[in-house]
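Workshop exercise sheet. Pairs work together: one partner reads the sequence aloud, the other fills in the structure field after running the prediction. Swap roles for the next sheet.
Pair: D.N. / O.F.
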Amino acid sequence: MSLSSVSLQPRINTGRSALWLLAGLTMLFLLAPIAVIIVVSFNDTTLFSFPPSRWSLRWYHALWESRAWREAGWFSLWLASLVALASLLIGVPAAYGLAKGRFPGRRLAEALLISPMVVPVIVLALGLYMLFSKLGLIGTSTSLFLAHTLLALPVVIVIVGAAFRRLDGSIELAARSCGASFPRAFWHIVLPAIRPALISAGAFAFLTSFDEVVLTLFLGGPRTTTLPKKIWESVKFELDPSLTAVSTILIIVSIAALLLVEVARRSRVQRLAKEVL
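Structure field:
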């Protein structure tokens, strides 16, 4: 080892330590508000005091006993599940065609399909309001389903399209050469090969719909109140401590979806490692 490398080693260690310290402080800055919300949700008083003077599940019980909160929560789960399913059914074939196809206007078609991800949500909500008002769909669950699917579809196309581009095309060609039809090869060969991407795309499409509030405010009505919309209304018109419990539940749902994505990714890596060995 040369003298120059020996003299540089303390500087490298110092820089690495400083980088870890900066990363830790950044994570603390981002996670501290979430931790405060979770802790305050177990408060027994009507005040948003931190730390709680008495610990209780009072606001979780109040949340469960409230019909308005229950209906909003179940409607959000139902809507987000349908949106995730529809986004996969539409987005997977579209992503395959964009990744594997060679046709005129492919770039334009891809730009149009992912444009809802680029256009501000408020602009998209205004345009959909003008369209759905002429069709008489304002205030219906159909309008929310169509709008949320339109917003979640680009997420599926981007994630699944990247997986299709990384996939070795010879696997599908081998199945086709053995006599498998295109639908059979696609279902039994291509889709299992990108299963982690499908799970990730479905999870993010679910979260896109589950957390959306702007489109719901424009297109929803009294009978189509989602959980984010109910939270927005509670923050605007009243100060309900149940909001901390709702926020904690939303955090848990988001973490669960991300853990599902991570489990799918690790299972894929382990399976590839076993195949290599």
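Discussion prompt: The chain has twelve helices and no strands. What would you look at next?
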